[in-house]
Amino acid sequence: MDVSSPIICLLLHSLVFVSLFYCNNSLETRNPLVNQTFQSEDELVKLKETIAIRLKQLNKPAVKTIQSPDGDIIDCVLTHQQPAFDHPLLKGQKPMDPPEMPKGNNQISNLSESIQLWSLSGESCPDGTIPIRRITEQDLLRANSDIRFGEKFNHQHAVQVVKDAAYYGAQATMNVWNPHGESKSVFSLAQMRIMSGTYGKDLNTIEVGWQVYPKIYGDRRTRFFIFWTADAYQHTGCYNLKCPGFVQTNKAIALGAAISPISTYNGNQFQISLFVWKDEMTGNWWLRYGDKNLGYWPTSLFTNLKNAAARVHWGGEILDEQYEQASSTQMGSGHFPDEGYKNASYFNHIYVIDSRRLWIQPTDPMIYADRPNCYNIIGGLDSSWGTYFYYGGPGKNKNCP
Question: Which residues form the Neprosin PEP catalytic domain (predicted)?
């Protein structure tokens, strides 16, 4: 069946996310009925066929299948058969070998690093494969769109930013929590965000971190994620491997899989260390998780990020689609930053790669919170943590009505 036909694109849009890779024109301009519910028997049959086609596109043949304790199915897929190579610009290519990361920092905190639930049993993918979290029909029915922003959404940030310049990489260590959300239509995350371009027009981003997002994953577990866009979240890009783009090279980490263990209030702290840098030879943006090179975003995916990034953000974010004045969705640990270590969420060992291709600590970063009485941020510079900040909060409270 031709997935580029207007009918199939229309049906696809009504249930699942659609990228320009499959539907080249805007569905809203092609058919004003795009948001209507399809109820006739023929239309339901077509919807079922469309879902089957999309699942086949997303879920590649597995060499080995692993059942995760949390219910996820992890497919071990040959590296050259992964979704990335469905992209028109990447067809026929094979994964590149990791380059050497620029020297000068590469520091990882000495606290315990979180791992992933699917690998706790000792199961692993064979050499020459990568682990991919299998997408189910329920996943597609839940997620109408991967586009995460809307003018009416309650969208809050508590972030640290560096002034606009040329950046060729960034890193941070962040502790991992499981923030509560009041409904399935919210997300809460902590991320590092590398950007270039104009908001609302041609923004290019690379985003990495952890998130709780029931609409995408069907549960409230904390999951490792990546995201990218080349056109300000309009059509290109997606979470994890749900569209062609990111090329994974590592068999140990599954994008979108649950993280374990997580930090506890006034208890043990667990964290992840993430690095993103631009390879001088190829221009590709590489991702490293702790001591593991995970893969890369090919430079051909981007327009503005073909060169350097213009800015970097680190911090927390919540989105609530209920349009409330204040949301009770937690950010980070759900506690304000002034509660400090073991109680509040933090980022530390924050570095960027500057125009000289050197790792440097941002010594004069700016911090910003949309609504400090709901979610706040406090930054500093420490001899052991380097540039750091605490962030987060409970959301709705007596000072945040």
Answer: 149-401
- Report pLDDT digits (tens) over 34-56: 344 545 788 888 888 889 998 98
| Annotation marks residue 317 as catalytic | yes
Catalytic residue among 182, 207, 321, 339: 207
pLDDT tens for residues 137-166?
Answer: 988 888 755 444 444 578 999 999 999 999
Q: Given the structure tokens 């993918």, which residue do they identify?
A: 125
d(CA 186, CA 202): 26
Residues 344, 333: contact at Cβ < 8 Å? Answer: yes
Going 357 to 114 to 321 to 378, the CA torsion angle's sign is negative
- The Cα-based distances of 192 to 69, 142, 169, 209, 351 in angstroms read 28, 26, 11, 6, 11
Instruction: Catalytic residue, from 28, 317, 321, 339: name it.
Output: 317
Beta-bridge partners for 270: none
- 151 annotated active-site: no
Name the token pair of 393. 């909060």
User: Alpha-carbon distance 288 to 276, whole Å?
Assistant: 6
Pull the structure tokens for residue 279. 């390879």
Q: Which residues pair with 351 in a beta bridge?
A: 171
Question: What is the per-residue DSSP string for 170-196?
Answer: EEEEEE------SSTTEEEEEEEEEEE
